[in-house]
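Predict the 3D structure for this chain.
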Amino acid sequence: LCSAFYCPDVSKTELLYHLLCRCVLPEAAGGLEVDVVFVDTDYSLDMLHLVSILDSKLSAADEAALRSCLSRLLFVHCYSSSQLLLTLHFLETTLSSRPALALILIDSISAFYWVDRCEGGASYTKQEEKLSRCAELLGRLLRDYRITVFATCHAIRRPGVPSSSSDSERSYLCRSWQRLVTHRLLCSRQEPGDNMASWSSSFCVTEAGVEFLSEENKCAARQ
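Done. Predicted structure below.
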């Protein structure tokens, strides 16, 4: 499973925080108790905020339980597509030595899009070369180790198209990445009067997690 979050107006990193916490929390606290790799390319990771979310989900102020949760996390910062590619190569070894590792989070996969385009010059092949290699390596990890990958992607809003429309986002990343993704989730801020042409669900992100809104709560949220 490889899912992509397209998030133009909402906190994509906050969504990943709660997904991460759900995975590393012990089963007794409603978690999955598995290991997670968080690849931070946007340098948006707020460790104190993440710890506060974990602490709020534990039944008691148990420092040992909190340390146990954090021991299931592996954080990596990447500042270029080349370093992201090297990180994914490193993860092959990590997956072999940590069988409990079940999830890779990438925030975001599109962080180096413009840099790669600039470095690639007029050649589309050169522009997409590094991300294509990353996608191919991720595909091998998905196939060989049966893991799950969630990646955020900066959405590009096209003029004249409502942000809530499913047509507002056309994937601009390389074809290798597009073929890899099995699920896409477009997150946007709903404006009053928006007419959803396709299936949609409204939610808000709080410190307690992702809360899906009923029709009554939607009206209250708009006010």
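The first strand starts at residue 2 and ends at 6.
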